[in-house]
Amino acid sequence: MGMKSALRHRADSGPDGDREGAGGGRLGRIARSPLGWMLTGMAGVGVVSGLTATGPGPVPVLGAAAAVAVYCYVMRRVARRATPEIARSGAGREVLLGGAIGLGFILVSALLITAFGGYSFNWAGDGVMSVVWTTIALQIGAAVTEELLFRGLALQALEQLWGSRAAIVITSVFFGVAHLSAEGANAWSGLAIALEAGALLGAAFLWRRSIWFVVGLHFAWNTTEQLLGIPVSGHAPEGLFDVDVHGSALLTGGGFGLEASIIPVLMGVAIAATMLVRAHRNGDIEPRPRAGR
């Protein structure tokens, strides 16, 4: 068992959890079950996100901090487990590493689409600092809350129930479904999001076992797209550039944006596969629990 797996095992099955699991009544036992603390946490983080995600100025950043506090409370007080995935030690390093991967992923994808004639960029030129700071605040809020919901809560709960492989498949599918309400979305864009984003971010978490790593990746991904003026999952941004789109939607992603392009889908699947191989070598892929365990 890898070091991170050992730490996670102790976090999930410590004496406090065993002691609390023996009492507390039926409602307490339900709340401490994986589905119980997952739904409790998702409700809390979801409320915070709904109230702050599109707020002015620093409101999304404050919402992100509040969402982390809610997550900590639910994990420690309801689930009765430690939270090494949001440890402050090494958090900066994980954010920077994830951010570098997210930045490179989007820049290479946009460059290839441009090279094939799909995009052309024109400098928008107005309110640079306003656009940059608004984008950063908005995307911090989005990255933190979405990763707490999908990787922190859903993936870890489902992993306890059915193992890592089932957890990444289920959360990837739901991540794609969650983006179907966006403008320009269709069945292909939902599949693309599930493959390149759901699978990639899930694999990133299994590899590093750090919410900060996937937050950095997610933040850099969305922020780079928005600053380039490319629609972020169907949401047209106010960026530093105006983008003209030419040719097939399979190349450009059409109105949904870069994520519906075949290029980042193929790249995302390749990167996710590499991360999953590394996670397996580290002993961080949890098998499906045996019946009656």
Overview of the structural elements:
With 293 residues, the chain is mostly helical. The protein has one domain. It is built from twelve helices and two strands, in the order ααααααβααααβαα. The chain has helices spanning 3-12, 15-21, 25-32, 34-52, 59-78, 91-115, 128-162, 164-178, 187-208, 211-228, 249-252, 262-281, and strands at 119-123, 241-245. It has a two-stranded antiparallel sheet with strand order 1-2. α5 packs parallel to α7. The protein is globular and about 60 Å long.
Question: Can you tell me the overall shape?
Answer: globular
Give helix % range: 55-70%
- Please give the order of strands in the largest beta sheet: 1-2
What would the average pLDDT be, to the nearest integer?
A: 91
Spans where pLDDT lies below 50 across 5 or more residues: 13-23
Supply Rg.
19 Å
Tally of helical runs: 12
- Work out the count of structural domains: 1
How would you describe this structure in keywords?
293 residues; 3% strand; mainly alpha
Short description, anyone?
69% of the residues lie in helices and 3% in strands.
Describe the SSE topology.
Layout: H1 3-12, H2 15-21, H3 25-32, H4 34-52, H5 59-78, H6 91-115, E1 119-123, H7 128-162, H8 164-178, H9 187-208, H10 211-228, E2 241-245, H11 249-252, H12 262-281
Antiparallel strand pairs: 1-2
Helix pairs in contact: 3-4, 4-5, 4-7, 5-7, 6-10, 6-12, 7-8, 7-10, 8-9, 9-10, 9-12
